[in-house]
Amino acid sequence: MSSHPLGLTVSHLIFGFSQRLLLADWSAHFGPGLTWVQGPNGCGKSTLLRLMGGAIAPQGGTLSINGCHASQDPLAYRQQVLWLGPDRIAFDHLKPLEWAGFMAGLYPRFDRAAFEQHWDAFALAPHQHQRIAALSTGTQRKLALAVAWAAQTPALLLDEPLSGLDAAALAHAQAVLAVRAQSTEMVTVIASHEALQATDVRVLGL
């Protein structure tokens, strides 16, 4: 049996911009379930999620998921931790299903059946032949969420995932988050200005 605690561990993290230090010797452990990171604008919520997701490198400290250290095996770490930011999808020359297929190749646990369920719930079929660049921000958000949830990574980091969703999409997203809040295996960390409807949400202040 592994001696490593289940979940994503941040140890003595250091990061700042120019003369401003956002995180100084900051440590936390994110266990299975749903953690809502809260704090005033500019406190470092988005930066923390980007750091944990490997989108930017820390200036000090360590990150690990279920005992896999980002600094020792970055590829294995990235396959287990998916970060979804609020920006539009980068590979916007692709069509939605092309991008989903590309992402499926990056994450070994990708569940195509789950993706199809979210695809249908978000009513994305009418957009399947369009380039992602032509899709609205809200539609791109739906596609990104469908892929992120289907990836089945041990840790999922979501920055403002509910922003820009229509009522039906918002209801589906809230329902998925409520299920993930009850997970005993998967970690979900979210930064959101939108209220969460899930119960048993852990709150972490920055």
Automatic annotation (TrEMBL):
GO terms for molecular function: ATP binding. Residues 31-202 form the AAA+ ATPase domain. Keywords: ATP-binding, Cell membrane, Membrane, Nucleotide-binding, Transport. It holds the Pfam family ABC_tran. InterPro entries: AAA+_ATPase, ABC_transporter-like_ATP-bd, ABC_Transporter_VariousFunc, P-loop_NTPase. Transmembrane segments: none annotated. Gene3D superfamilies: P-loop containing nucleotide triphosphate hydrolases (3.40.50.300). The keyword ATP-binding applies. SMART domains: AAA (SM00382). This is ATP-binding cassette domain-containing protein.
